[in-house]
Write a structure and sequence with these properties.
about 325 residues; mainly alpha; about 0% strand; globular
Length: about 325
Amino acid sequence: MSTSSREARSGAPRETEAAPRESAAAAREAEAASLAILPTARQSIGRGVLWMLLTTLLFVCQDSLARILVERHAPTEVAFARYLVHFLIVGAYLALRAPRLLVSRRPAAQILRSAFLCANTILGIYCLKIMPFLDFSAVVWVAPVLVTALSVVVLREKVSLAGWVSVFIGLAGVWIIVSSAGLSFSALTVLPLLVAATNALYQIATRMLRTADEPATTLFYTSVAGVAFCAPFLPFFATRPSPESLGLMSLLGCFGAASHFCIIRAFSAAPANVVAPFGYTALVWASLSSVIVFSEIPTLRTVVGTALIVAAGLAIFFGPRPQPMERA
């Protein structure tokens, strides 16, 4: 029996009771639909790929600006500026358009996810000071490989033999790059791996939260831990930025917010297994930035290490999916 026929038989009083509920539901749907950040669109592979290409370009622009700024300012100050601008832009927009989206159903998990990204940003900025630009970019993109390894512990998934081979190939690529960067076996050697590991944990946390909140809510909480953690360090490490640095910091925050917006749009427009491999185009943009902006010519070891990381990542994307472990 259809819904309309049941309502017709129940009479007018029931319609009157249902009206407020339907009005409230319609209002919530209208509020969500009015949020232009993530409009619902039909799936399009071409559109999804274009959004991913724009995402990777913004990521590299963001890293390039961070490297320029870290020559003048402390990493925590640069990270604070990046997250503050993101927080203000997204927070103000949601406060005006859909205030309810400022409240998370799982705030603790959102803060943990944000903390992983904050750690990734600060460690990454330190790496940008000691590593060639392309080397750093390549190490960051070993994160999808590490997600496969960490999923065994965090997500209780079973990884195939081919998956483990890809993990070791990717780590071999990282080792080649780190050694080519001239880093001795010390804490500095571990630093690039920590950047990749925090990036992987951030991706896993994002995956676990994908059904907990609206994407716009997750976009807002992305910046919360960064602002809260970095702010107390400003009185000790921050220096007064020049008008030029202030402009670059503002641009850095805009790039940060825009890149996360674009990657959400990319995965909304096309399947993840189609869009994700195009993330490695970031290494093309990074190569251009390395040569044009920083006058750094990639070494043969960097090229070989990068090729191994990309091969491992693509093998993960196109290989068999990890399966849930069977309970004993």
